[in-house]
Amino acid sequence: MVSCTYLLTLLAATAAIASPVRLSNQNGTVKIRQSGQVYVCKAGANNDGVTYGEVSQDCAIGYFREAGTKAGFSGYPKKFDNKGNVMKFASGCNENVYELPVFSNGKRYDFNAKKGSINKPGPMRVYYTKDLKFCGVGAKEHIGGTGNPHNCVLENQGVPSQGWLLVRKRGISIVLSFTGRLNWIAYVGCLSV
């Protein structure tokens, strides 16, 4: 049986030289959950106009997981056909993509209320698959929410500013939370499973 001390030492050495990626092998699994990533959405075909706002990836994921794929009274979420491939998505996000309005103020779009003067969808959207996999955040070209959508720009790239790390090895799980450039601040737990 592997001790928690051994795994913590191994983890600390690995964290000092490794960039955050998902790894898995036959001996264990390492998962890194990035949080704090923010998309900046602007008007214009190239996301270069007036700023609409910023959208937290974590909030957007929470919104679409709550909404699912069945349209509410507003008509959202709805299938997104990406005519002309105007939105650039990672692999796995090419078919059965849905869109849901998002706001920069943390307020949820009420997809179960009728769309109208009080329940306006605005120009920003989160895109995701039928399996609820995040694909991206985009914005409509014009302030009124019309025109072709375009990708919003990811502001916080690279090493995550905060998050948690889960390491599983031979029946033992270790969870660490961190802030900054791999500046570990909390050892959450070591569990034998």
From TrEMBL:
<keyword id="KW-0732">Signal</keyword>
<keyword id="KW-0540">Nuclease</keyword>
<protein>
    <submittedName>
        <fullName>Uncharacterized protein</fullName>
    </submittedName>
</protein>
<dbReference type="GO" id="GO:0004540">
    <property type="term" value="F:RNA nuclease activity"/>
</dbReference>
<keyword id="KW-0378">Hydrolase</keyword>
<feature type="signal peptide">
    <location>
        <begin position="1"/>
        <end position="18"/>
    </location>
</feature>
<dbReference type="GO" id="GO:0003723">
    <property type="term" value="F:RNA binding"/>
</dbReference>
<dbReference type="InterPro" id="IPR016191">
    <property type="entry name" value="Ribonuclease/ribotoxin"/>
</dbReference>
<dbReference type="GO" id="GO:0016787">
    <property type="term" value="F:hydrolase activity"/>
</dbReference>
